[in-house]
Inverse folding.
C-alpha cells in the first residue's frame, strides 16, 4: 500500500529510469538521478542522526536540487520546510523560532543568509551532501517505521498577530490530493507540467506530486519570467507543455499583456488554477486563445492540501459572472455552517468547513491556533470528526455548485498569496513615529494600501515594512493622514477607509 | 514632451518617483507585473496607440529611455 510520497518516486524511477523527471534553467534530472540523489541527501542526514519527524529547512530558490532536498529529508524521516530565500531575515527568524529546525540545507548563493538564521554547524551545502553514497539498508530501516500520518512538510503562511503559522501536512493528505487530481484530470506519463508557484507556497504541491506519481515531467520556470509572461508562453510552446497548475494572477497577467494572444500555446490541454478568485474576463481571454483545453477552477486553503473543491468549467460565462468553486473533491467532506454552528440551507451564506484525509495536522508548535481552526464538527458530536474552519463564506447555488462569497475576517489574497492585513499593520506600527495604522486592499488595482497617522515619512515606513515582510506583502501605496477616522466603538473605521481607498 | 507624458503615466501607476535615474525598473523593484499591465493600458490611452503583445518584453520596459523608444516606434507610424 502507498504510505509515503517516496513510493511515487520509487515507482516512477522503476518504470522510467532514463526519463527526464525535472528540468530547470540549469539542467535536468532523470528519474534515476532524482531517486539516487534523494537517497544521498537522506543518507547524509541520517549519518548526522537527524531525529525522526524533526524539521529541516530548505533555503534556496526553486530548482531541481530543492526537490531532491525535500525527498532526501523525507528519506531520513524528517519534515521538510521550504523557506523563501528572498524574505527578510527578520521574518525568517520568526519562522526559525517557531520550528527550531535540526538542520538547514542551502546552496552557496544563500549560505550567508542561512548564517544569519542558525549556527554554522547546522548548515549544509547541497553540493556537499549530494556526494554521499546512498546507504540503502539505513534508509529502508527508517522507512519501515514510517506511517502515512507522519508529517511530510511544513508550509508557513501569514499570521494576523505578525508571527507566521506553520501548516503541518502529512503524507496521507498529499497522497489523497494527488490520487484524486490524477483521476479527475486523467494524468499520465505524457504530462509535461510548467511550474509557476514557488516551493514555499502550497500552490506548487500538485506540480511536485502529480509529476512523480504519474512518471511525468516537471519544468521549473524562474519566477522573474512571469513579470513578462511572453517568455513563459514561448517556453510552453517550445517544450510542448500540456498541463499547468498556476495561480490566477499569473494567468491574469498573461491575458492582460496580450501574451496569450501573441504566442500559440494550444499545446496546453489542462489548465488548472487555485489560490484566489479567477476573474471571468481573463478566463474568457484564455478560452478564446486556447479553446480546446480543459479548464478547472480549484479551491482550497493550505490547511487542506492545495484544494478541497473543484469546478471543471462546462458552460459559457459572461464577464460579469463569477466562476463557482464547484463541488467537494473525492474523499473530501464539506460542511457549511451558519453563525449558530448549524447547517446552512441551500442558498444561505455560511462558513465553509472541510473534513477528510486532506486535513493538516494543525499548526506547528501552536496548539492554541490549532484548536481555534481545527475543531469538532458540531453536526456530529458522538465521535472524533475534525473539521477545518476556512474563514471563507460560501453558498450553494441553484445548480448545486458552491460559490465563494467573501472572507469572514481581514485576510486577503494578493498575487495568489494569502495575507493577513494585520501582519502588515503590525510591521508598520513598529516604525518610529507611527501612531495608528490600517491596511485595506484595493481589489480593482490589486494593490495593498496602508493608511497611517504619525510623524514618520512614507519612506521610513516602507523601509521598516520591507525589513519585516516579504515583497508581496509590501503595500503598493502608503497614505498619511492627520488622524485616522474612528467609528462609534472608538475603533479605526475600516469600513470608511475601505470605501475611500479600497 | 513624450518623456513627460510617459513619466506621468508611470506616476499614475507606480509609487516611486526616481524614474529618470533608474537604469533598471525591474531590478530596482519600481514596477511589478500588475503595474506593467496598468502601465500598458495607460500608455495606450495617453498616446492613442495599441501596443502589440510581442512588444511587451523586459527590454522595452526596463527604463525610461527604453519606453520612450518603444512609444516612438508606435507614434511615428
Amino acid at each position: 500500500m502507498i504510505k509515503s510520497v517516496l513510493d511515487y518516486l520509487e515507482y516512477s524511477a522503476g518504470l522510467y529510469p532514463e526519463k527526464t523527471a525535472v528540468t530547470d534553467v540549469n539542467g535536468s534530472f532523470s528519474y534515476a538521478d532524482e531517486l539516487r540523489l534523494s537517497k544521498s541527501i537522506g543518507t547524509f542526514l541520517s549519518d548526522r542522526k537527524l531525529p525522526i519527524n524533526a524539521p529541516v529547512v530548505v533555503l534556496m530558490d526553486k530548482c531541481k536540487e530543492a526537490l531532491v532536498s525535500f525527498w532526501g529529508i523525507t528519506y531520513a524521516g524528517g519534515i521538510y520546510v521550504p523557506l523563501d530565500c528572498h524574505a527578510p531575515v527578520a521574518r525568517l527568524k520568526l519562522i526559525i523560532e517557531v520550528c527550531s529546525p535540526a538542520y538547514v540545507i542551502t546552496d552557496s548563493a544563500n549560505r550567508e543568509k542561512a548564517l544569519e538564521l542558525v549556527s554554522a554547524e547546522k548548515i549544509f551545502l547541497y553540493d556537499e551532501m549530494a556526494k554521499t553514497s546512498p546507504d540503502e539498508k539505513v534508509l529502508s530501516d527508517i522507512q519501515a517505521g514510517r506511517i502515512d500520518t507522519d508529517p511530510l512538510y511544513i508550509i508557513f503562511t501569514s499570521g494576523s498577530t505578525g508571527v507566521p503559522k506553520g501548516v503541518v501536512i502529512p503524507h496521507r493528505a498529499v497522497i489523497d490530493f494527488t490520487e484524486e487530481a490524477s483521476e479527475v484530470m486523467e494524468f499520465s506519463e505524457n504530462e509535461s507540467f510548467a511550474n509557476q508557484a514557488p516551493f514555499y507556497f502550497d500552490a506548487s504541491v500538485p506540480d511536485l506530486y502529480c509529476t512523480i506519481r504519474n512518471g511525468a515531467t516537471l519544468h521549473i520556470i524562474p519566477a522573474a519570467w512571469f513579470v513578462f509572461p511572453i517568455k513563459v508562453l514561448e517556453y510552453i510552446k517550445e517544450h510542448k507543455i500540456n498541463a499547468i497548475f498556476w495561480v490566477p494572477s499569473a494567468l491574469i497577467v498573461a491575458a492582460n499583456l496580450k501574451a496569450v494572444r501573441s504566442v500559440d500555446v494550444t499545446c496546453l490541454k489542462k489548465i488548472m488554477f487555485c489560490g484566489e478568485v479567477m476573474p471571468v474576463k481573463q478566463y474568457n481571454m484564455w478560452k478564446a486563445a486556447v479553446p480546446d483545453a480543459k479548464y478547472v477552477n480549484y479551491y482550497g486553503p493550505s490547511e487542506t492540501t492545495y484544494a478541497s473543491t473543484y469546478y471543471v468549467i462546462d458552460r459559457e460565462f459572461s464577464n460579469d459572472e463569477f466562476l463557482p468553486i464547484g463541488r467537494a473533491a473525492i474523499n473530501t467532506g464539506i460542511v457549511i455552517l451558519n453563525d449558530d454552528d448549524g447547517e446552512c440551507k441551500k442558498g444561505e451564506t455560511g462558513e465553509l468547513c472541510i473534513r477528510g484525509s486532506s486535513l493538516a495536522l494543525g499548526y506547528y508548535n501552536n496548539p492554541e491556533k490549532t484548536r481555534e481552526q481545527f475543531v469538532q464538527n458540531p453536526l456530529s458530536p458522538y465521535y472524533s470528526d475534525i473539521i477545518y474552519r476556512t474563514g471563507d463564506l460560501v453558498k450553494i447555488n441553484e445548480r448545486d455548485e458552491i460559490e465563494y462569497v467573501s472572507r469572514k475576517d481581514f485576510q486577503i489574497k494578493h498575487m495568489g498569496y494569502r495575507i493577513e492585513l494585520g501582519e502588515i499593520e503590525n510591521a508598520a506600527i513598529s516604525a518610529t513615529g507611527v501612531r495608528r495604522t490600517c491596511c485595506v486592499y484595493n481589489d480593482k488595482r490589486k494593490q495593498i494600501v496602508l493608511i497611517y497617522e504619525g510623524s514618520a515619512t512614507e519612506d521610513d515606513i516602507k523601509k521598516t515594512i520591507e525589513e519585516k515582510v516579504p515583497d508581496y506583502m509590501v503595500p503598493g501605496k502608503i497614505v498619511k493622514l492627520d488622524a485616522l477616522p474612528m467609528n462609534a466603538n472608538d475603533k479605526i473605521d475600516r469600513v470608511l477607509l475601505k470605501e475611500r481607498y479600497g | 514632451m513624450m518623456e513627460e507624458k510617459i513619466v506621468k503615466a508611470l506616476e499614475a501607476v507606480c509609487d516611486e518617483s526616481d524614474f529618470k535615474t533608474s537604469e533598471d525598473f525591474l531590478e530596482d523593484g519600481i514596477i511589478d507585473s500588475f503595474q506593467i499591465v496598468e502601465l500598458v493600458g495607460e500608455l495606450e490611452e495617453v498616446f492613442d496607440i495599441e501596443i502589440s503583445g510581442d512588444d511587451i518584453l523586459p527590454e522595452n520596459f526596463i527604463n525610461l529611455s527604453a519606453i520612450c523608444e518603444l512609444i516612438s516606434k508606435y507614434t511615428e507610424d
The domain at 2-14+23-76 of chain B is CATH 1.10.1200.10 (Non-ribosomal Peptide Synthetase Peptidyl Carrier Protein; Chain A). The first helix of chain B runs from residue 2 to 13. Chain B has a mean pLDDT of 85.
